[in-house]
Amino acid sequence: MLFFQQIEKYKNNTPVLPLCSFYVLPSEMVALHAGMDAQKQLLSYLTGEETTSPGAVYLNKHQLTSGSPLPEIGFFFLDFGHYERLTIKECLVFWKRLYQSSLSVEAAAGLLHLNTKQKTRIKDLTYSEQKRVQCCLILFQNPAAIVLEEWDQNLDIESKKIILALLMKWKKENKVLLMLTSNMETALTASDLVFRITETTVNTVNMEDSADGESAAEGNAFVFTKIPAKVNDKMILFDPPEIDYIESQDGKVLLFINNESFPCGFTLNELESKLQTYGFFRCHRSYIVNLQKVREVITWTMQESRLCRFPKIKWNS
């Protein structure tokens, strides 16, 4: 088990990680939806570059300390330094010897669909192929826990499917799997559980299969106290205070949260009624804004204004 206990981090009086505790169990894929600063901070703890203060990080009851990263943790970094002059086979042979692995080079290349390219130099591969080669390092290391930083960023469709299949294999082998991502769709696609880090809290994302959500709605079995949005075949439920603003685009209603948009099945009129008690305001026929998130209001003319927050919103009356 990978356990983060009462960790917290501030830089220049700005919260990077709020005070939080969470854990990842073996054979469980957990995604942590967070910004890049929070991701880098967590990685600095996990790699031993920095000591947690306050709090601690444990892997199977062994505390991680500064300067002594545990070999039982494997990392799939977003930025990875390859030996570009080596061929794939030369690279895999080197890693196999480094970790004294019993896994054959052919088996590792086969899992990542690289058998036909073993004589190709790393520098001549596409970015997606290089990321698949990077996965081979973890295969030879065979760690108890694997931490993946933005694992599918800029990957082609083929490589996403190949690496996702490898993640499923590691899950069956009882690995501890933690994915760090700033993309909610990525978090929902591959994980069993999603945590979302904000400036003040770490919340568990409520997920439901689409079919279950639709059948419950049809039977009027419950009333939504949260606002649902659909991502692929899953439904994610947002607390109203999390929503920055809502916009209608080409007949579709989108929820905007931390610079990401999520499609919602409610109309603007329905959302206006549901969210009025939470401090939301219908400022335009196409917009509803969370007044708690507004930083500044500027009047340009008698007929035009702008609400300013993280993304700037502009509308004409």
Automatic annotation (TrEMBL):
Classification via Gene3D superfamilies: LytTr DNA-binding domain (2.40.50.1020), P-loop containing nucleotide triphosphate hydrolases (3.40.50.300)
Residue span, ABC transporter domain: 2-224
Organism: Alkalicoccus halolimnae
Record-annotated membrane-spanning stretches: none
Record's keyword terms, sorted: DNA-binding
HTH LytTR-type domain sequence ranges: 227-300
Database matches in PANTHER family: ABC TRANSPORTER G FAMILY MEMBER 20 ISOFORM X1, ATP-BINDING CASSETTE, SUB-FAMILY H, MEMBER 1
GO molecular function: ATP binding; ATP hydrolysis activity; DNA binding
SMART domains, per database record: LytTR
Name used for this protein in its record: LytTR family transcriptional regulator DNA-binding domain-containing protein
Pfam name, any one: LytTR
Domain of life: Bacteria
Database matches in InterPro entries: ABC_transporter-like_ATP-bd (IPR003439), LytTR_ABC (IPR012046), LytTR_DNA-bd_dom (IPR007492), P-loop_NTPase (IPR027417)
